Description:
With about 300 residues, the protein is α+β, with helices and mostly antiparallel strands. The chain contains 9 helices and 9 strands. About 40% of the residues lie in helices and about 15% in strands.
Amino acid sequence: MELLDKLFIRLPDGDRCDDRLDPEFDPALAAFIGLLQSGRGRLLIPRPDGRWEKTPTGFYHLFSELFLQVRGRCRFRFLKQEIEIGPGDLLLVPAGMVHEEEITSPDCREFRNLVLMATDRTPSLHLAWCPARDGKLPRIRRRLMLDGNAFYADLLKALPLARSGDSAETDRISRTLAAAALAKARLDLRDRPQPAERVYEPDPSVNPLSRQAKHYLADNFPTRFPDVPEIARAVGCTPNYLSTIFRQDYGMTLKEYLNQLKFDYACSMLESSSFTIPEIAFSCGFSDISYFTRKFRERFGRPPSSYR
């Protein structure tokens, strides 16, 4: 699958990565779509066991994700199954599937994948990598915005249904659906100018670690909801120290800021979707509905039920 290397402009160089799209990104993605339609490469879908099931440690997304592994390997742990993907593999993670991701490449800096996040309002294709040799979690490097409609959400929702049988015909149908999603993303990226990369103007009064923590959250939301220990590892300090300096810089602890982002996202989902309150709360990392309701009311002055 050497053509997939062209989806990134160059390979890792130490702890640096150039995240500009290669000029050959478009033809490389088109070539991969052709291979997918011809039956080459694996298209994997986990069994639906445990879908929408709540657990103390894991959480799910409200929308489906389609992972295209470019380099390296990654293991996905679901409640009742594990799937490992390598270069050229496509994995669909349907909405409501609790899962954890772990990079399994010997040198994690080799890791590269593309992830199609099929929200119905702001679908995106993001580039993920890992800057550390011994890192285990993928990090979002750049998010490319796609046309904001329900096309991707509806298409990926239909994909597991096409795989309900085990035959060459159902495999062909599911590959056609996955290829259609990638082809539409290719057209969106070609026809829709991408906004310029964010340029952060450093505030000399703010500790660089606090600023990096905010940037890390901005790069992951709402695809992932990293916790405080993960953010601290990403910026290179202890959770307690990071929370202390973050509060000094922004007037709230990092956990309070993280919860603020979660509740704002939950509020937008209550306003714009038909998901239930428990589904939205759990997708944001809250397994205790009474706690979620109480804190939601504190932030917005009204309970989540008032949005229904």
